[in-house]
Amino acid sequence: MDKTAPKPDYDAAVSVRVQADDFDITREIATLSEGRRDVGAIVTFTGLCRDEDGRLSALELEHYPGMAEAEIGRIAEEAAARWPLTGLTVIHRFGRIAPGANIVLVVAASRHRRAAFEAADFLMDFLKTRAPFWKKEHLAEGAESGWVEAKAADDSDAARWVKN
Amino acid sequence: MKIRYFAWVRERVGLEEEEIELPAGVASVSELMAWLAARDEGYAAAFAEPEVIRVALDQFHVEHEAPLGGASEVAFFPPMTGG
């Protein structure tokens, strides 16, 4: 993630989108396999809004326009340089999101499953700790309950990927 | 220099962004945070625990020791909670 590092060379088609609108998971999967015969594995991760056992009416996702796309792009390029992917798509939503609705999507395609699983896992760990998004909770009773606090477990998840 | 604030840092400062002239003697991110914290109560509340604040210079994450250099945009925000 060093900004002075040379641009990594990789073949994967990397697509990063930050948007208010929902996404179509089936269509995003199809985009990474259409017209190709070399893709053997596609792994998707979808993050959804939980209601925390009925406590929340919605999450409000704030982001840093420009940097959100750039930072996810840097993480995606690192994943594409580290694993032999054929394609990688990352979509993150912002704005008000209701329980049950999608927040984030990662689609990783490769010749073999291991690279696709690992790249998707890596992408999510770094997205959570480095992509500039913040969640605010809206309570079911109508009040705002404040900002979600970052979890130490997210930092330790990201630290798993540091190469010795 | 443009300064941007996000999430509870933005709420406490009371601004999304502002333009400032860097005062003499403010050369690093930590010096800028200390200078901002002394402006009024809102800034003081935002930067009360400077160690938890994350910083980006021209949309790249940096540490608090980083020199401001020729950056045109600095952003202050809490630890991130996306995904």
Automatic annotation (TrEMBL), chain A:
One of its GO terms (molecular function) is molybdopterin synthase activity. It is an enzyme of class 2 (transferase). One of its GO terms (biological process) is Mo-molybdopterin cofactor biosynthetic process. Belongs to the MoaE family. It comes from Stappia albiluteola. Keywords: Molybdenum cofactor biosynthesis. It comes from the Bacteria. Converts molybdopterin precursor Z into molybdopterin. This requires the incorporation of two sulfur atoms into precursor Z to generate a dithiolene group. The sulfur is provided by MoaD. Its EC number is 2.8.1.12. InterPro entries: MoaE_sf, Mopterin_biosynth_MoaE. Heterotetramer of 2 MoaD subunits and 2 MoaE subunits. Also stable as homodimer. The enzyme changes between these two forms during catalysis. This is Molybdopterin synthase catalytic subunit. Pathway: Cofactor biosynthesis; molybdopterin biosynthesis. It catalyses: 2 [molybdopterin-synthase sulfur-carrier protein]-C-terminal-Gly-aminoethanethioate + cyclic pyranopterin phosphate + H2O = molybdopterin + 2 [molybdopterin-synthase sulfur-carrier protein]-C-terminal Gly-Gly + 2 H(+).
From TrEMBL, chain B:
It comes from the Bacteria. Transmembrane segments: none annotated. Pfam families: ThiS. InterPro entries: Beta-grasp_dom_sf, Mopterin_synth/thiamin_S_b, ThiS/MoaD-like. NCBIfam families: moaD. This is Molybdopterin converting factor subunit 1. It comes from Stappia albiluteola. The lineage of its organism: Bacteria, Pseudomonadati, Pseudomonadota, Alphaproteobacteria, Hyphomicrobiales.
